[in-house]
């Protein structure tokens, strides 16, 4: 058990029979009354964000977590399968635990956050930028050069994104995995 003085961003705690991560916190010492810690915590299982206030000195249960690098293999009715590159151990993760599963490409390395005591996966983080090949897009219309003109395109994972009109079928593009936005065309 620890006290509220140890709260910091990224700390994982047991709260209401769930594992929460501290998103932000503020120690407050009002002129009158007892001190307290105002926090914003995010559930590692559901993704729900709560505002919660702990009184100063309140005991909190810190959860030990570990980040491990895994490689994406495939998906089926059991979930999305990943392999640890060091131990070759495989783990299946449900679709609801992955923020953008449509950008998972075979062989891509991801980071999985594990509850160290229970060995259960909590969250999965894709790399910030992903390079994917365009498998289908309409050709750009000549003369349509207004600023920020985009067209739909399908990438190798099956996801549909918006790309500038100069991007063609077969091009490799860099995407932001959190937003799904086109960043740039990758030079070959």
Tally of extended strands? 16
Count of spatially separate domains: 3
> Reading side by side through the largest sheet, how are the strands ordered?
1-6-2-3-4-5
Q: What percent strand?
A: over 45%
Percent of residues in helices comes to under 10%
The global form is flat
| SSE ordering | EEEEEEEEEEEEEEEE
- Helix/strand class: mainly beta
Q: What would you note in describing this structure?
A:
The chain has about 190 residues and is mainly beta. The protein has 3 domains: about 1-60, SH3 type barrels (Roll), CATH 2.30.30; about 65-125, OB fold (Dihydrolipoamide Acetyltransferase, E2P) (Beta Barrel); about 130-185, OB fold (Dihydrolipoamide Acetyltransferase, E2P). Helix content is about 0%, strand content about 55%. It contains no helices and 16 strands. The strands form 3 sheets. The chain has a 6-stranded antiparallel beta sheet, with no helix packed on it. Strands 9-8-7-10-11 form a 5-stranded antiparallel beta sheet, with no helix packed on it. A 5-stranded antiparallel beta sheet has the order 14-13-12-15-16, with no helix packed on it. Strand 8 and strand 9 (about 90-95) form a beta hairpin. The chain starts with a strand and ends with a strand.
């Amino acid at each position: 058990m620890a006290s509220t003085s140890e709260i910091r961003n990224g700390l994982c705690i047991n709260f209401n029979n769930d594992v929460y991560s501290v998103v932000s916190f503020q120690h407050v010492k009002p002129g009158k009354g007892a001190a307290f810690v105002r926090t914003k915590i995010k559930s590692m299982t559901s993704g729900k964000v709560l505002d919660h206030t702990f009184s100063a000195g309140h005991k909190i249960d810190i959860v030990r977590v570990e980040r491990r690098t895994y490689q994406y293999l495939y998906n089926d009715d059991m979930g999305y399968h990943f392999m640890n590159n060091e131990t070759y151990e495989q783990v299946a993760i449900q679709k609801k635990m992955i923020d953008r599963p449509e950008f998972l490409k075979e062989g891509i390395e991801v980071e999985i956050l594990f509850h160290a005591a229970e060995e259960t996966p909590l969250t999965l983080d894709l790399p910030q930028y992903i390079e994917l090949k365009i498998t289908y897009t309409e050709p750009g219309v000549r003369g349509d050069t207004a600023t920020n003109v985009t067209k739909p395109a399908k990438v190798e994972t099956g996801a549909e994104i918006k790309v500038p009109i100069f991007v063609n079928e077969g091009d490799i593009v860099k995407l932001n995995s959190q937003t799904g936005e086109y960043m740039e065309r990758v030079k070959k």
